[in-house]
Design goal:
By secondary structure, the chain is an alpha/beta fold. Helices cover 34% and strands 18% of the residues. The strands form 8 sheets. Strands 9, 10, 11, 12, 13, 14, 15 and 16 form an 8-stranded mixed beta sheet that branches. Strands 2-1-22-23-8 form a 5-stranded parallel beta sheet. The protein starts with 5 loop residues before the first helix and ends with a strand.
Length: 800
């Protein structure tokens, strides 16, 4: 075939796959199941960018290979379509978010189909479909009934631009992850989910799954489990105590002052004793910032001493000052710390600003210059002097417990999940607030509770949901007592729908339950899940939490949703910068497909480099992959008869089957394609390829370039469809060549190669070399001084 007409070929095969539902997975088949999952996209108005095909193609390769290996493969796709961008677009244009979402999904689906992915489109889900979010609401009701969903006054991160509350995870570098707007602290009545109840299990159960190390690490660090002690410090001349949590009870002799959060309740309790209360309250007002800003290490150390009250170090008996500072959070630990400036950088800087005592209790540093945070022996601590840090921690914890001034404690950085969003475009929270009965769950028979049509999507200036402007919707009778009551007007965050979507794929049309027991038992858990590193704290943590809850109430059959989790690197612009409209370096996949074809785009994105690392886009690289596929298309003109691999290609064929098979399973797509290119070059050198070799070659390339290979398979007259063929097997013994090529050098210059047996002796190789007169071509007046054979590597001749 001349350079193939990819447009006609790709359209033809996409229509065949669609019409014949070639990739539909049937629950309960006798074949072993394999569930491959990619993170479903947010359908934005811009459509797909060239970053999307990288993970989708990778898992499509895995899915196509698994089908050929005899698995019943579930490879689904859907859309995570609630959220702020669509709502903001609706506010700007006046187009209803539902219409925006439908148009965006239609465009995304067209683009995905144009790339030839083997998705099972019969299982498509859309988180904004009431048939879907009925079950999101059902899960919330179960959480509520089990006491894991609750509402309370809470200082939240509030985006001043989006006018919406944000979870800590959604604040990046002190600004809103979505819009980059300023984030401030605002006290609001918020729905919370008790993810902290699952903190230990969310760490411990990582032992049972095959997640890449950096994903496990990001989960463990975010949860932030630590072991230490809670210790009570009396406030002098009062009955009040300040309880601190510390991972370093061994340093208590060095605790020379205390710091509490500006919001700590002891300020209100002892306000009559605090002589500078005005300054303390002014400090509290200034602390209304995001958690990120408050805890930044390099920020200026500010605070105010609480004049009129002091604490007592329970071990030394010494009186110590109490300060209020915004770097201590009420939401972490107890809202109070014992400050050990000699061995904590932040405490050291604070102590220097306020001229506070600094006492060394761990030897090894120079505390006149900086805090010492390294290892050493305990000093200046009579009860534990001379001990190492580990032994001293344990000993001091025992002393604290014996004296009745504290107890050992496990703590977590993880906070309960702020679940309310004061926006319109999200799942309504199915709760009714009755002045007599409190919070009453909507009866499950009334689900889904659908969103009403609103004319104005803007949140109110005080940060309330647009639904707050619809009394005809939220005013309702209490289902329990019949009194006047109100629906909840907050909606769920975008994370809700994505926390369980993988379950709905197993049984997407079920209107009786979120998925049948039969479907869940057959398909779960997900065998391989790939997604971006940016989702390995938020989405991954949330979905693991919901899954564990569903396991506890008997809905699912596995403790973990995903057996294997990998992540891919971002594709950068040609200028090696992140793609963005403002930089003018965005590449539209539609344009690449139109000019070079879907198979070329797929091949290039897999060949671009290490799958787990960032890689810059290169149009020359795209053109190189198109040239490779053009060469493949012309191989049909080189086909000769043969039902077995030829002698010339046997070793390379078995090597290629082995390498491609292994590399597809270990994310080394670039080296698998390089091996197929090597085989192609050898075919061109030989000028021929037999039917057995061509058949295997097409199968190996098919997961990467499915359209061209299906076409060549059909044109070659092979039976059935290529995607139904069996994956080839290799013989390990045949991956090692019987003969090897040895390069010959004369006086350091390459002169040619000879083929020798891989176990040939030096004498045998010498004999073969000297019979190759055309290779040697040594003039008669030249004398051979020396010959050196490096076994299996090179034959050197030195002549005079």
């Amino acid at each position: 075939m001349e350079n193939y007409n990819f447009k006609d070929i790709e359209k033809k095969w996409q229509e065949i796959w669609d019409k014949e539902q070639c990739f539909h997975a049937v629950t309960g088949e006798d074949k072993p199941k394999y569930y491959a999952l990619v993170e479903f996209p947010y359908p934005s108005g811009q459509g797909l960018h060239v970053g999307h095909p990288r993970p989708y193609t990778a898992l499509d390769i895995v899915s196509r290979k698994k089908r050929m290996e005899g698995y019943n493969v579930l490879f689904p796709m859907g859309f995570d379509a609630f959220g702020l961008p669509t709502e903001n677009y609706a506010i700007k244009t006046g187009v209803h978010p539902a219409i925006v979402t439908k148009n965006n999904i239609d465009n995304f689906k067209r683009q995905l189909k144009s790339l030839g992915y083997s998705f099972d489109w019969q299982r498509e889900v859309d988180t904004t479909d009431p048939k879907y979010y009925k079950w999101t609401q059902w899960i919330f009701l179960q959480l509520f009934k089990k006491g894991l969903a609750y509402k309370k006054e809470f200082p939240i991160n509030f985006c001043t631009s989006c006018k919406v509350g944000l979870a800590n995870e959604e604040v990046v570098n002190g600004v809103c992850e979505r819009c980059g707007g300023e984030v401030v602290r605002k006290v609001k009545n918020q729905w919370m989910l008790k993810i902290t109840e699952y903190a230990d299990r969310l760490i411990d159960d990582l032992e049972d799954v095959n997640f890449i190390d950096r994903v496990k690490t990001s989960q463990i660090n975010w949860i932030g489990r630590s072991y230490g002690a809670e210790i009570n410090f009396d406030i002098k001349d009062t009955s009040e105590k300040l309880t601190v949590y510390t991972t370093r009870p061994d340093t208590i002799y060095g605790a020379t002052y205390m710091v509490i959060s500006p919001e700590h309740p002891v300020i209100e309790t002892l306000k009559d004793k605090i002589s500078n209360l005005d300054k303390v309250l002014e400090n509290k007002e200034k602390a209304k910032k995001s958690d990120f800003e408050r805890t930044e290490l390099n920020k200026e150390k500010t605070g105010v001493k609480l004049e009129g009250i002091s604490a007592v170090n329970p071990i030394t008996g010494k009186e110590i000052s109490i300060f209020a500072s915004d770097y201590v959070l009420m939401t972490y630990g107890t809202g109070a710390i014992m400050a050990v400036p000699a061995h904590d950088t932040r405490d050291y800087e604070f102590a220097k600003v306020f001229d506070l005592p600094i006492i060394e209790v761990v030897s090894g540093g120079d505390i006149t210059k900086e805090a010492y945070t390294g290892d050493g022996k305990i000093v200046n601590s009579p009860l534990i002097d001379g001990l190492g840090i580990k032994e001293a921690k344990e000993k001091m914890t025992e002393i604290v417990e014996e004296k009745g001034i504290g107890k050992r404690k496990t703590n977590f950085k993880l906070r309960d999940w702020v679940f309310s969003r004061q926006r319109y475009w999200g799942e309504p929270i199915p709760i009714i607030n009755c002045p007599h009965c409190g919070f009453v769950p909507l009866d499950e028979s009334e689900l889904p509770l659908t969103l009403p049509d609103v004319k104005d999507y803007k949140p109110t200036d005080d940060g309330e949901s647009p639904l707050k402007n619809m009394p005809e919707w939220y005013n309702i009778k209490c289902p329990k007592c019949g009194a006047d009551a109100q629906r909840e007007t907050d909606t769920m965050p975008q994370w809700a729908g994505s926390s369980w979507y993988y379950l709905r794929y197993t049984d997407p049309d079920n209107d009786k339950e979120l998925a049948s027991k039969e479907a869940i038992d057959y398909w779960m858990n997900v065998d391989w899940y790939n997604g971006g590193m940016e989702h390995t704290t938020l989405h991954l943590l949330y979905s693991r939490f919901w899954h564990k809850f569903l396991y506890d109430i008997g809905v699912v059959n596995t403790k973990e949703p995903y057996q294997k989790r990998t992540s891919h690197g971002m594709i950068l612009g040609e200028n090696h910068e992140k793609m963005s409209k403002s930089k003018g370096n965005v590449v539209n996949p539609d344009e690449v497909i139109d000019e070079f074809g879907a198979d070329t785009l797929r091949t290039y994105e897999m060949f671009i480099g290490d799958f787990e690392k960032v890689a810059p886009w290169s149009e020359n690289g795209v053109k190189g992959c198109k040239r490779f596929l053009d060469r493949v298309s012309k191989m049909e003109d080189m086909i000769v008869d043969g039902v077995e691999y030829s002698k010339e290609l046997t070793t390379l064929m078995h090597q290629t089957i082995k390498k491609v098979s292994e590399d597809f399973e270990t994310l080394k797509f670039n080296t698998a394609i390089a091996q197929l290119m090597k085989l192609t070059n050898q075919v061109y050198d030989n000028g021929k390829i037999n039917r057995a070799e061509f058949r295997t070659f097409l199968i190996l390339l098919n997961p990467v370039a499915p359209h061209l290979t299906e076409e060549l398979w059909q044109r070659a007259g092979f039976e059935g469809y290529l995607h139904d063929a069996d994956w080839p097997k290799y013989d390990e013994a045949k991956t090692v060549a019987d003969e090897i090529e040895i390069p010959i050098q004369i006086n350091g210059k390459f002169k040619g190669k000879v083929s020798v047996g891989k176990e040939a002796s030096e004498e045998e190789v010498k004999d073969i070399v000297h019979k190759q007169n055309a290779v040697l071509n040594i003039p008669e007046d030249k004398k051979i001084l020396k010959e050196i054979y490096v076994k299996g590597r090179i034959y050197n001749i030195v002549v005079k």
